[in-house]
Amino acid sequence: MNFENSPEAAMQFAVKLLAARAHGSKELADKLYKKGFSSANVRHAIEESTRLGYLDDASFASMYVNELKMRGKGRLFIRHALSKKRLDKETVGEAMENCASDPEEELATAIETLRSKVRSLARESDRQKRRAKAFRFLASRGFAPDIIWKAFASYPELA
After folding, report:
1. Domain count, the chain
2. Is 94 in the same domain as 107?
3. Residue 110, helix vs strand vs coil
4. Residue 62 lies in a domain
5. pTM of whole model > 0.85?
6. Would 67 be classed as within a structural domain?
7. What is the DSSP code (8-state) at residue 5?
8. Which of these ranges, 66-70, 102-106, 132-136, has the smallest mean pLDDT?
């Protein structure tokens, strides 16, 4: 048997990836397949990593949600980012529930995110264009329209 495609080599590569940063199980499996490991060896590495506690989709999703919230992202962006990590819908739903921010917390995040953009928006003399740019800016970060309109109220130049 080729050592490079052994269960031990797959596990070693999985541990190396997980030491660098957390992964979801499907994301890790994709990387192992891309490296050339067989299905049986990938399955072994995933099962063993899970058994040892190195791999946990639920905790990965929760950590990722918190990271994105800290980076000023809204619920819509976060949900989309989780689905791009190929996590199952149940895990995504639980992560969104467990880490759900109340509307006031999300509004505060939107206001803080908008604060970083207000200075560059001030260069736009047309009020409507300024509002449209601010709206697109917050929408691209995953904030819902109702949160965006409420955030505008904190900035007289946008309201």
Report:
1. 3
2. no
3. helix
4. yes
5. no
6. yes
7. G
8. 102-106
Question: Residue 75: which domain range?
Answer: 57-98
Q: How many CB atoms lie within 10 A of CB 68?
A: 20
What residue has token string 């199952």?
A: 88
Q: Are 94 and 109 in a shared domain? A: no
Is residue 108 domain-shared with residue 125, that is, in the same domain?
yes
Please choose, from the candidates 117, 129, 123, the residue with its C-alpha nearest in 3D space to the C-alpha of residue 154.
Answer: 117
DSSP string, 42-95: HHHHHHHHHHTTS--HHHHHHHHHHHHHHTT--HHHHHHHHHHTT--HHHHHHH
In tens, the pLDDT along 125-146 reads 898 999 999 999 999 999 999 9
Q: How far apart are CA 45 and CA 10, in angstroms?
A: 6
pLDDT (0 to 100) of residue 140: 95
Nearest to 112 by CA among 78, 140, 74: 74
In a domain, 138, yes or no: yes
Cβ–Cβ < 8 Å for 35, 13: yes
The rounded mean pLDDT for the chain is 89
What helix, strand, coil percent values describe the chain, rounded to 5? 75, 0, 25
Residue 157, in any domain of the structure = no
39 and 12 inside one domain: yes
